[in-house]
Amino acid sequence: MTASDFSLELQEVSHAYGDLLAVDQVSLHVIAGEVICLLGPSGCGKSTVLRVAAGLEPLQRGRVLMGGNLVAEGSGGSIPPERRGVGLVFQDFALFPHLTVAGNVAFGLTHLDAGARAARIAEVLSQVDMEAYAGAYPHALSGGQQQRVALARALAPKPAILLLDEPFSGLDARLREQIRDDTLHILKRSGTATLMVTHDPEEAMFMADRIYLMEAGRVVQSGSPDMLYRRPVSPFVAHFFTALNVLHGIVEAGHVACAFGRLPAPGHAEGAAVEILVRPESLRVVLPGDRALSDHTTAGRLEEIRFLGSSKLLTVAMAGPDGAEMRLRIRHGGRYLPEIGGQILLQLEPEDSLIFAARKTLAGRHREASDKSPVLSGI
Ligand code: ADP
Known about the structure:
Layout: E1 6-17, E2 20-31, E3 35-39, H1 46-54, E4 61-66, E5 69-73, E6 86-89, H2 101-106, H3 114-127, H4 143-155, E7 161-165, H5 173-190, E8 193-198, H6 201-207, E9 210-215, E10 218-223, H7 225-230, H8 235-241, E11 244-252, E12 255-258, E13 261-264, E14 273-278, E15 283-286, E16 297-307, E17 312-319, E18 325-332, E19 343-348, E20 353-357, H9 362-370, E21 376-377
Parallel strand pairs: 3-8, 3-9, 6-7, 7-8
Antiparallel strand pairs: 1-2, 1-4, 4-5, 9-10, 11-12, 11-14, 11-21, 12-13, 14-20, 15-19, 16-17, 16-19, 17-18
Helix pairs in contact: 3-4, 4-5
The structure holds adenosine-5'-diphosphate.
């Protein structure tokens, strides 16, 4: 793949607001038909990257290329936003209140004659299933309908690149799932290269072909949602996607011993203190009759069950390495469970454990282990 295959490419882009370095040497690319998510906590610089790509923020350092052509360089010139062939959708949809739906969509189509313009408006409104509302004004539409009009307006001029900034965050939770699904289909059908900003990991995993995860202005990991979820490069990345159980241990002969037996700890030095991160869905409840009693099984006491609809969140208490009681959280999909207070067997597949160098002092660990709350972080 060559650079000209990239619909959008950012090379080592940095951006400061006064003394605050909001974006620090971010490089990324998007190809036609791909949906890329820029993900990260609030304030990590995602919107700034998007605004620099759109040309709404002047480029300070680095390079922005579109279709292999340089559109902005930190040391020099820049093509203005309206000539970049980019569609934009923002969180508040920013529809023109005094224009009808058709009028809003017509906004970027002034280069077409009246007939072609009307045809394109009809086509794009049908794509987003809003033909029936062509004459309506934005205030008469629901949030979901406004979002679809904003998308239609952005797609109408057939931009090579679509930039979306938290496009679903103004919608309520139930509507959001449906609109995300619809939007993904529309984007995939349009073949546009899409760069979308979100702080919601579930949304990014649902929408993205690839994710760039940012922390404090830098991209800390990029790859497929599956890759970031299963092979996080740091505790920050691991914690960003779900709450995690945190166990501790010391590396001996390439392994670390914990409640679930000896787990391989490749790449960690002999004697190193490590933390073992385990996702609640990675712990399996071993049912009576299961013959899967492996070395990686341990018993605890079922303390609490919370119903989450399709699964349950269990709290299980067990003896920790230093004798103090510790608690783990398990996401359990099955129906059978012992009574509260009963014994429960848990199993961990070693490959589902994420092992990183420990970040806490021993004193901190003792405090955590004796705490009454689950040994869990990130909730
Ligand atoms: P995100 O989209 O990840 O929430 P932003 O790119 O909006 O992050 O902001 C990154 C950092 O830059 C934040 O600390 C924010 O307060 C700051 N920032 C954003 N825009 C401006 C601005 N126009 N002037 C000064 N600081 C800004």
